[in-house]
Amino acid sequence: MSRIPGVSTREAGPVLRVMYWFAKRRFGAVPEPFTVLAHHRKVMLASARHELAVERASRHLPASVREVAVYRVAQQVGCSWCVDFGTMLQRLGGLDIERLKRIDEYVTSPAFSAEERLAIAYADAMTSTPMAVTDEQVERLRATFGEKGVVELTYQIALENQRARANHALGITDQGFTSGDACRVPQP
User: Fold this and answer.
1) Verdict on whether the full-model pTM lies above 0.85
2) DSSP letters of 78-144?
3) 63-169: what fold?
4) Which of 6, 81, 140, 169 has the lowest tally of Cβ within 10 angstroms?
5) Domain ranges of the chain
6) Tell me: the pLDDT tens digits for 47-93?
């Protein structure tokens, strides 16, 4: 249970109920971070608009590169909710989620492409404290993905750091998106 209980459907007003309905339809359940944000309607609405806009805008990088980097951030920060939800999104996107079990060996594992290794290493460098990003690392990313790709990857990693740290601080833990028990999200 999170440190701040989410706003239930019963407590929600009509606008929030509609938002919950759309979230449940899309994900199989209303994501708990969404219900906690509902305590502050303006922040929740800003977050929802931002998430949708970033999702629509992030189309330059291959999904496998972007999603594995985001997953790595969630894992490194220790946000079990983000790991759970991110695994579900990768599964629904048709990506291989079995390889996520080997992400700690990404440098040598054949489960990851050279491009994915670069992205995971960048996620590690951006997530560490203090940050450990180097000019050489960014230049390798730029040579591989172009400037647009580096900007997209950097933004996605930074955004996941924000999400994962906020969820972790609020005590939001995995919701069962990957177990198949709590949320029966259909395959595409």
Assistant:
1) yes
2) T-HHHHHHHHHHHHHTT---GGGGGGGGTTT-TTS-HHHHHHHHHHHHHHSSS----HHHHHHHHHH
3) AhpD-like (1.20.1290)
4) 169
5) 14-57, 63-169
6) 999 999 999 999 999 999 999 999 999 999 999 999 999 999 999 99
